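Q: Could you predict the 3D structure of SDR family oxidoreductase?
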Amino acid sequence: MGRNTFANQVVWITGASSGIGEALAVEFARQRARLVLSARRRDELERVRQRCLDTDAGRGTILVLPLDITDHDAMPAAVEEVTTTIGPVDLLINNAGISQRSKCLDTDLAVYRRLFEIDVFGQIALTRAVLPGMLARSSGHIAVTSSVAGKVGAPFRTGYCAAKHAVMGFFDALRAEVDEHGIEVSTIVPGFIRTNISKAAITGTGEAFGRTDSNIAGGMDPDAAARVIVKGLARGKMEIPVGKGMEMHALWLKRFFPGLVLRLASRIGRPDE
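A: Sure. Here are the predicted structure tokens for SDR family oxidoreductase:
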């Protein structure tokens, strides 16, 4: 991958205020991309913007565009603002999302609906808003952050796993649909990455879980993960696994040893007591 593979390309990242999204923003800033940073919290986006400006590339074009991924009606105007301000979107990274920590029978149906609104329908809605411009140019790249949980079920994450499986299915199907139009689709499949995902996860009543699982705390550094992801996107990989732990082996073990993966998931997928 060249140093400035994404130079001058318009890269729109949702969920850019922390974690993988923030790390991706910094990595793309180093490559002199023209960035659009979206999440709900403007103050955190401004912090990430400053971190991007402080990279060795520095001083690139960065648009801070607060966006609630569940506000589908706001998306056409957001796409118009991006297009008129810095240009048509070359790469959309659907990275916004939320996780879960609760048993099935302890989880309100409203929590399941919230997980799908954020992790599935929000990604679909923004993709549908951006896609017409890509089709008109016969060019573009759409990515989504799924999870190993989109391939392997894990306890206390029934809603999260269901949502991430849905994301994998939708974007795999979209890839087949738009391939003939010159548009690439990539699914990003992280394992345990050292972010606030478990701390911000919701419980069965919709409250914040509020603590970091030990497997998350010992996970891959998000900046290292971002480098792997950007390298995969530059190569046009359809699926980009990223992580360093035992959970990554489950991606291939499930096919041949499903019982072993069940026992593995039951053991390492449980939140700390």
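Q: Anything worth pointing out?
A: The chain is about 45% helix and 15% strand.
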